[in-house]
Specification:
single chain; 204 residues; set domain protein methyltransferase, domain 2; three-stranded antiparallel β-sheet; 46% helix
């Protein structure tokens, strides 16, 4: 493993990264989602053999909304306090971190998967762009903004290269997964219905 203060000799891979993820401000259920979430707000990108995978309990809470079946109700506890209870299609969701398991049993699972993968790919792309934009600006926070010494600068540059390689692999894998989901019947029907609704709105 490594940190920004130490890199094992001979390490040729970043192995894993954690990318933070925020619930969009325009999400009408954003406040309730934040209140019930028990998962770290982000995405883990990691190597699994020759493949690059991702994992996030938090992400699926971001991907679904009221029109899909997610809802929240306010409960009063025995001691008089109030708490928010998440629900999926009328059934209590006692552990929001297990939402993915619930969604996997839903007929719209492929659609939810596509949304999740699109969000992960977008976040990976943002992080890649950040690495590109800051490659030549490696500054040590000393209070005087003095340039980093050769050793630490080399270390930081090497870590960025490893992270960039991992993220580029992740982006390609996500693209393949996304294209495969576009070919599923559920996703095709969903996108066709969405296009039809948009066309109707254009004529109203």
């Amino acid at each position: 493993m490594f940190s920004y203060g130490f890199l094992e000799e001979g390490v040729s891979s970043a192995r894993e990264l954690f990318l933070d993820l925020q619930i969009p401000n325009d999400d009408p259920l954003a406040l309730a989602k934040k209140r019930v979430s028990t998962s770290a707000p982000g995405i883990k990108i990691y190597e699994d053999g020759d493949e690059v995978q991702w994992y996030s309990d938090f992400l699926y809470l971001v991907c679904v909304n009221e029109e899909d079946g997610l809802d929240f109700r306010l409960l009063q506890t025995n001691d008089g306090d109030r708490e928010i209870q998440a629900q999926w299609k009328g059934s209590d969701l006692h552990d929001p971190s297990k939402l993915q398991e619930v969604l996997q049993k839903d007929t719209m699972w492929e659609v939810f998967q596509l949304r999740a993968i699109a969000l992960v790919q977008q976040r990976v792309e943002e992080q890649l762009q950040l690495l590109v934009d800051t490659t030549d600006v490696v500054i040590l926070e000393t209070g005087n903004d003095r340039p980093v010494r050769d050793g630490p600068r080399h270390l930081a540059t090497q870590l960025r290269k490893l992270e960039r390689t991992l993220l580029e692999k992740a982006f390609k894998n996500l693209e393949h997964e996304k294209l495969a989901l576009f070919e599923t019947e559920i996703v095709r029907d969903y996108l066709s219905a969405q296009a039809g609704e948009a066309a109707e709105q254009d004529f109203t």
